[in-house]
Design goal:
By secondary structure, the chain is of the alpha/beta class. α3 packs across α11, α4 packs across α12 and α7 crosses α9. The longest helix is centred in the middle third of the chain and has 18 residues. The chain is globular, with a radius of gyration of 20 Å.
Length: 343
């Protein structure tokens, strides 16, 4: 029997400091998120970050928390329910971090008789700290607890034509009637070293002005290339004029170089350059969460206004948009119809 497991990032159980601290501890101790030796990661996370950051992060979560709970969790559950109505196999939900564990998600499917799982990381682009950590943990859990289970997964879909159509339609719909001067594509940032570590050629990714535009096998796992490609494909689809849109990266941590340009500094620059009306879309996320609802929609708007900007429009993530539901359901039903899958 086949089944599906949707996997998203995760969330604290509540916006209270103790729950945020527990969540941040699990998240930041992941060796694919902060990829330094264990002793250094422990010193940084447990010795510094968890003693300083939880209160500020909890305050941020409190700003965006819904009555039903964490926006990311609630939206993911809505997506799960909507997809379940369009497919005949069980659809489960799990998070990489937090209480809705991958082990729980797989166990629920196994309890329903599932022995073949289609794992869908809810990330359009591949990255060490998102897709890879989900796939690695899922395999560890499978080996330890469900050795008879077969797991296949949905590859990064950043350049899938249907996905680009869905995202383009969503952007068009939410910006319909909006008179904006600049559209910013803001993606979650990663350290530059993650790009080089994911380079299967060990030589292509130089993070210069040309490597992401030069065809290479490295692009299959290059987060930077995949982000830039989404921007390019959307701009092409929406007929955006050169100079009216750009790409940036948000949410950096620490002092090592991260992908640039940085979103906060880009918003600041656009305001200083006289842009009065800007819009921003966050295509690295499929569900609205702390990074989109607070960091972009609140902090980003505040920066823009401080720099003289007037109108700041945020495009929601795809969330449980019907076209996105239809697309994921289409991919799932195509997988279900296959007689065999590759583990």
């Amino acid at each position: 029997m086949k089944g599906v497991l949707l996997v998203n990032l995760g969330s604290p159980d509540s916006p209270e400091p103790k729950d945020v601290k527990k969540y941040l501890g699990e998240f930041l101790m992941d060796e694919r998120v902060i990829d330094v030796p264990l002793w250094a990661r422990t010193l940084l996370v447990k010795g510094i970050i968890l003693n300083t950051r939880p209160k500020a992060s909890a305050a941020a979560y409190q700003k965006i928390w819904w009555e039903e709970g964490s926006p990311l969790i609630v939206i993911s559950e809505r997506l799960q329910d909507a997809i379940q109505k369009q497919t005949n196999v069980p659809v489960g939900l799990a998070m990489r971090y937090g209480s809705l564990t991958i082990k729980k998600g797989l166990q629920e499917l196994v309890d329903k008789g599932v022995d073949e799982v289609f794992l869908i990381p809810l990330y359009p682009q591949f990255a060490m700290a998102t897709t890879e950590t989900i796939l690695v943990l899922a395999e560890e859990v499978r080996k330890a607890h469900f050795p008879k289970l077969t797991i296949s997964d949905l590859p990064a879909f950043y350049n899938n034509t249907d996905y680009i159509d869905v995202l383009s339609n969503s952007i068009s719909k939410h910006l319909n009637g909006q008179d904006y001067e600049h559209l910013l594509f803001s993606y979650h940032g990663v350290p530059e070293r993650h790009i080089r570590k994911s380079d299967v050629t060990k030589s292509h990714c130089k993070i210069d002005g040309s490597c992401c535009a030069t065809p290479s096998p490295a692009h299959q796992f290059c987060y930077r290339h995949q982000c830039l490609e989404v921007t390019r494909l959307i701009a092409e689809k929406l007929n955006l004029k050169e100079g009216t849109y750009s790409t940036s990266f948000q949410s950096r941590l620490g002092f090592d170089p991260w992908l640039q340009p940085y979103t906060d500094r880009t918003i600041e620059r656009l305001g200083k350059e006289g842009i009065k009306k800007m819009a921003i879309v966050t295509p690295a996320f499929v569900s609205d969460c702390l990074e989109t609802l607070e960091e972009i929609a609140m902090e980003g708007e505040e920066i823009f206004h401080e720099m003289g900007g007037k109108e700041f429009t945020t495009v929601p993530c795809l969330n449980d948009d019907q076209e996105f539901v239809d697309l994921l359901s289409k991919w799932i039903n195509a997988w279900v119809s296959l007689e065999t899958t590759t583990a």
